[in-house]
Design goal:
Chain lengths: ~210, ~290
């Protein structure tokens, strides 16, 4: 029963939502919009689950003083402070002068930007070590990468003689080989998603219900 | 000589980090700008917005965070200036929780510079959780997805929302997207089903993913990374420089391209030198 009811609910919702593509009647749309709204509420509820999970996973590690427990403690303290400050400020938390906005502007924003900016350094290091023309495939990849990197920036367009042709060649790489490869990947992934979706709707795929049995 | 080349290939990565840091800092202090052309994908966004008439309304989905700010903020700002200068109305929402505290003040400030009134000329609906589900609901019933705007006013009662109930009522949708959920999910979930006109401004790393959607006309325009933003800025500032709303505005991505120039050159130089050293030190066994 614990599995049968979720399977029936999944089947009904799945079939109704697929039907939305074929039945453009406004009453049907109103019904699917209702289902979507339920989904959004569940999605918002997932934030609470995430919060509980974060505490459940990290708090015991801090208590046991496991490796890098200090980072986890800092994360939990930041979490609690942000949560309290956000709730205390209510609807006006994003207004200038609010502590929540200050945390966003002067803690979250620089940290988030720094993490992403570090990529430039690691990519440079990884490109130097890994990009070697060891065989034909690697050489083609290498040549394409260098051409795109140079053609993407204004200095590429300013190179005498070839500067005018570089952007055209880059666009060809993007439009033809890149598009062909990505379409193949997209179509393959889409077929896989359709198959998985059908298996879930028809109750053949049950791993999402838990219990280890699929 | 051979030993020196082998040592070069195995050099401490901190030297690379130092070189990269200098490649970024020197052009920031002493910018050298090169002229650049506008790509047809970016031109398509500009041209389509030029076709809009005063009073038209567009929906902007601002789905990015501070990490992608250098690439997307210039496009976002130039796009708002472009739309407001043409007296086009804007309704904005976000699928990213990190976006509203960042993008809303920009929207409010730029609207103020153009003398626009919140609720009448633009609305910021805020963040909505749910990823693809939220996009589907936007397309079916935007007012249901956002019963109130970010200021707490009822969405259905906002003058800017008069006659607009769902995404398909908007002439144009602009997705300023740094990843999931964003442009790809708009295309997959709603573009085909509702026949929506969508343009995307995205990060350089995501742009190649979206080229197939541009080629199949599922996106009518595509701006990739800082170069795309710089090109769009160039078009807007060339035509609207004299607009009073742009009197305080300045180009952001264009001047920053000198950093990209040096950064890309440094990486290309590293790759080329690394390969030269590799070939000169290669033993016959490795052939």
């Amino acid at each position: 029963m614990k599995r049968t009811i979720p399977l029936i609910v999944g089947f009904i919702i799945g079939v109704v939502m697929i039907g939305e593509f074929f039945i453009p009647h406004y009453r049907y749309r109103a019904m699917t919009a209702e289902f979507l709204e339920w989904g959004l509420i569940l999605g918002a509820g997932a934030f609470i689950l995430g919060l509980v999970n974060l505490v459940q996973v990290n708090l015991p590690k801090v208590q046991r003083r496991e490796t890098d427990w200090q980072y986890k403690a800092a994360m939990l303290v930041a979490l609690v402070i942000t949560l309290i400050v956000g709730f205390a400020a209510g609807e006006s938390r994003q207004a200038d002068g609010q502590t929540f906005k200050w945390i966003y502007d002067y803690a979250f924003t620089p940290l988030n930007a720094t993490m992403f900016a570090l990529l430039a350094f690691y990519i440079a290091s990884a490109a130097f070590r890994a990009f070697r023309a060891r065989n034909m495939e690697a050489t083609v990849l290498l040549a394409a990468a260098i051409l795109v990197m140079i053609a993407r920036v204004p200095i590429g367009e300013s190179i005498p003689v070839i500067g005018d042709y570089l952007p055209q060649f880059m666009n060809w790489i993007m439009d033809v080989p890149n598009t062909a490869a990505r379409r193949a990947i997209f179509i393959g992934a889409a077929l896989g998603a359709i198959a998985t979706g059908l298996r879930v709707i028809l109750g053949m795929e049950r791993s999402h219900l838990g219990g280890g049995e699929s | 000589m051979r030993n020196a080349l082998i040592r070069f290939q195995n050099m401490d990565r901190r030297w690379i980090f130092l070189g990269m840091a200098l490649s970024i800092m020197i052009p920031l202090l002493y910018p050298i700008n090169f002229p650049f052309k506008v790509d047809q994908r970016v031109q398509a966004i500009y041209d389509r917005i030029e076709e809009l008439e005063a009073g038209d309304t567009v929906f902007i989905s601002a789905d990015f965070d501070p990490a992608s700010r250098p690439e997307l903020e210039p496009f976002y700002r130039a796009n708002l200036h472009h739309l407001f200068a043409k007296d086009v109305k804007i309704v904005m929402g976000s699928l990213w929780p990190y976006a509203p505290p960042m993008v809303r003040p920009w929207l409010d400030n730029i609207a103020k510079e153009h003398g626009k009134v919140e609720g009448e000329d633009y609305a910021f609906l805020g963040f909505k959780a749910g990823n693809e589900l939220a996009i589907k609901l936007f397309a079916d019933d935007l007012v249901k997805a956002f019963p109130s705007d970010a200021s707490g006013k009822k969405t259905a009662e906002l003058p800017v929302m008069k006659g607009f109930r769902s995404l398909k009522d908007f002439g144009l949708i602009i997705s300023v997207s740094a990843g999931f959920p964003g442009t790809k999910e708009y295309v997959l979930q709603v573009q085909g089903q509702y026949g929506l006109e969508i343009a995307s401004a995205t990060t350089a790393v995501s742009a190649p993913d979206y080229v197939p959607y541009y080629k199949s006309k599922q996106l009518f325009g595509l701006s990739g990374g800082m170069p795309g933003s710089a090109q769009y800025e160039k078009l807007v500032f060339a035509d609207y420089r004299d607009d009073p709303g742009l009197s305080k505005a300045k180009e952001m991505a264009g001047p920053a391209q000198s950093v990209l120039n040096m950064g890309h050159l440094f990486i290309v130089l590293l790759i080329v030198c690394g390969n030269v050293a590799f070939f000169l030190t290669r033993t016959p066994k490795e052939d």
